[in-house]
Amino acid sequence: LALGADFIATGHYTRRGEQMGKGTLLKGLDSNKDQSYFLHAVGHEELEKTLFPVGEIEKPEVRKIAEQHGLVTHNKKDSTGICFIGERRFSDFLKQYIPAQAGEIHSLEDGELLGQHQGLMYHTIGQRQGLGIGGTANHGDAPWYVVEKDLANNVLLVAQGNDHPALFKSTLTTGDVFWVSGEEPLPSCEQASVRLSAKVRYRQADQDCQLTATESGYTVTFDEPQRAVTPGQSVVFYQGDLCLGGGVIESTH
User: Fold this and answer.
1) Rounded-to-integer distance, Cα 230 and Cα 226, Å
2) Are 174 and 231 part of one and the same domain?
3) Which residues lie closer than 8 Å to 65 by C-beta, 6 or more apart?
4) In this structure, are 128 and 204 located in the same domain?
5) pTM score, whole prediction
6) SS3 103
7) High-pLDDT (> 70) share of the chain, %
């Protein structure tokens, strides 16, 4: 806008709306490609000057239009990587900014030493691949999953089974939440709460929850336990197609 333009257009699969004179962030029409989760920290003033042309149509139609205009990307394979790191491996990208510190991998159940990790930053809750753990005499051949990171001791804790209880959490806390409208959707009273839906990862289906204000931020209590809720990732709140905002997950219970 500093260049004299009236609007900026992006290729994100999301939509812009308006509510009470303010710009709003809406889910993209193509639910399989919706990217509102990533844009939850864009405020209403910025949204009023932003256009999302592909958010109003589905991906096959976008490809058709691109082909009609002779764009070579019309049949490009969909990418699920991080757009700003290019073709590099994510682990190589992290190495440039965070010093890796190797440590031990232990069983959550009995504390047995199972292997070594090259840095907690390379692992996420719910991860199965890349642990370098095979079957053991004491635990059999069931696959191992990351269930917790012990940051204080630099230990990666794992457990067996895709549905292990340690992978599921019903409650999370978050500190500062960015609200797209600039106003939190809760009554003005101490310990106020409201029913919403939320996502804790991209492409997750909306999950019904109760959002409660606390002295230090907010507590989110889900109707159903959620798998692999990960501190450091974002929880994003919705009312139907309307993206309300979100914050960083600080802890889980």
Assistant:
1) 10
2) yes
3) 57
4) no
5) 0.90
6) strand
7) 94
Per-residue pLDDT tens over the stretch 43-70 = 999 999 999 999 999 999 999 999 999 9
Domain carrying residue 140: 103-162
The answer to whether the CB of 128 falls within 8 A of the CB of 145 is yes
**186 in a domain, yes or no?**
yes
CA angle 7, 8, 14 (to 5 degrees): 110
Sign for the CA dihedral angle at 182, 186, 188, 190 comes to: negative
Q: Which residue has the tokens 């004179």?
A: 21
What pLDDT does residue 84 have? 67
pLDDT value for 190: 62
* Mean residue pLDDT across the chain: 92
Cβ neighbors of 198 (< 8 A, separation 6 or more) are 206, 207, 209, 211, 220, 222, 235, 236, 237, 238
Choosing from 162, 177, 196, the residue where a domain stops is 162
Count of structural domains, the chain: 3
Q: Are strands 8-9 and 50-51 parallel, antiparallel or unpaired?
A: parallel
